[in-house]
Amino acid sequence: MKLGEEALPEPPGGSGQYAGSTRSVVIVAGDIAAHPDTTVGETAQRTGLPQSQVSGAVARLREVGSVETAPDPADRRRTLVRRSPEVSARVATVRAVGASRVEEALARALGEAEAERLPTVTEALEVLARHLVRP
Question: What DSSP string describes 28-92?
Fold first, then answer.
């Protein structure tokens, strides 16, 4: 998780202007992707994050176009959150710079003494991604 965070490009305007840490945003984004049409409260329960942190992460994700919200038709007091059907500019940016930044983060983590293992570690992560990540 830490290596992935290191590889993320800085959000526009810097991360300081957004509520919620990068880690909580990544956790919340993953939960929303796995549980479409969920609520902030449900996400908080599943992730163990405080509801205020989930709310901040959802606001950040909505601001960059990664998620959308809508009133719950069954209970208009609740708001449902789902992944945006369009690829946001932020997601496109992360994808565009992702591979090289991930390799840089991996190289730093391995250090000079283990640098020759970078191709093996990278290949192992690609295999895991193919088997574990769903579109």
Answer: HHHHHHHSSSB-HHHHHHHH---HHHHHHHHHHHHHTTSEEEEEETTEEEEEEEEE-SSPPHHHH
Q: How many folded domains does the chain comprise?
A: 1
d(CA 131, CA 96): 22
**Looking at the predicted structure, is the pLDDT value of residue 19 above 50?**
no
pLDDT attached to residue 9: 66
User: ∠ at Cα 124 (113, 33), nearest 5°?
Assistant: 125
Q: Residue 80 sits in which domain range?
A: 1-135
CB 7 within 8 A of CB 102: yes
